[in-house]
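## tool: complex_structure
## caller: assistant
## args:
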Amino acid sequence: MNMAVEEAIPRVVGEGKAPSTIRFWHNANTIVIGCFQSAKLEVNMEACKETGTEIVRRFTGGGAVYHDSGNLNYAISLRKGHRLAPDHNLQSVFHRLSEGAVEGLQNLGVKAEFQPINDIQVDGRKVSGAAGSIRWNAIFHHGCILVNSDLSILGKVLNVPRAKLEDRHVASVQKRVTTVRDELGRDVSTREVRDAIVDGIESCYAVGVEPGDLTKEELGLAEELYQTKYSRLEWNLEP
Amino acid sequence: MERLRSADYKAPGGKLVRIRLKEEQGQIRSVEITGDFFLIPEESLGKLEKMLEDVPLREAELRLLMDRFFRGTGAKGLGVSPDDFVKAILSAREEN
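## result:
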């Protein structure tokens, strides 16, 4: 259902029926693959069964990410033409809309910086990846922050192609990622990171963030998208 | 005789493009393009795959087709360029 909500919000924001929105959420053990990826190629199905990991496809491009309760996902939906993303260029969207999260992480003490195309890194290791789209009259950007995720499962359930690892001169996916907990050297909750990111967003973009619930329209659309798309094997696993 | 061909191509400084195609007598019968790139609008990738059917597996024809696809659809890639798609498809021809 989380993926369905993820799509419903920018659609409703794009129609002008909801304000610019940032949503925070997390999943239990799940691999989320990009819309152009092949589940068969990217995911170790056996390891998923063993670890009880689900596989879902999102509507945006980019690479597969492993979610567990130690992840913090954030999603920003703006109406097209918003001052934070005036030029409708996806690279600029990733850069600009990662800055709030970068500032939040820096305020916590993590030496985070945006790394094109779509990562937030600490000393060359990825702590967050982003994806997004420009459609439905909306600008959409979402990111997945590794707060205290179990990186050992991540290494098992994702098949990272050799071509990709060789290009980055690392031996495994585990070695090219890090977590907020590891960077701070202490336990940290997703709530603490969320609060830091909200502060980062408010100061970076000069906006106020107010808590709110999904509108009736967003919920209704999310239900429909879940039934017709995100609960279906043909969407999640094919090709 | 139909042959299955595949390749993984990492765009320099960009994303991974994975090609699985069926080739017969030097022509593409069908192709599946997957990977961790970005392409807007997202639906345009299916159109590209369709346009590639029955196209000769040769650089000149692929470049022409890619040019027609990007101009015709207004599609925009990030982490992948028209040239990367051509190289990825050609590398499937070479690798198998």
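## assistant note: Chain B has a mean pLDDT of 95. Strands of chain B lie at 2-10, 16-24, 27-35, 38-40, 76-78. Handing back to user.
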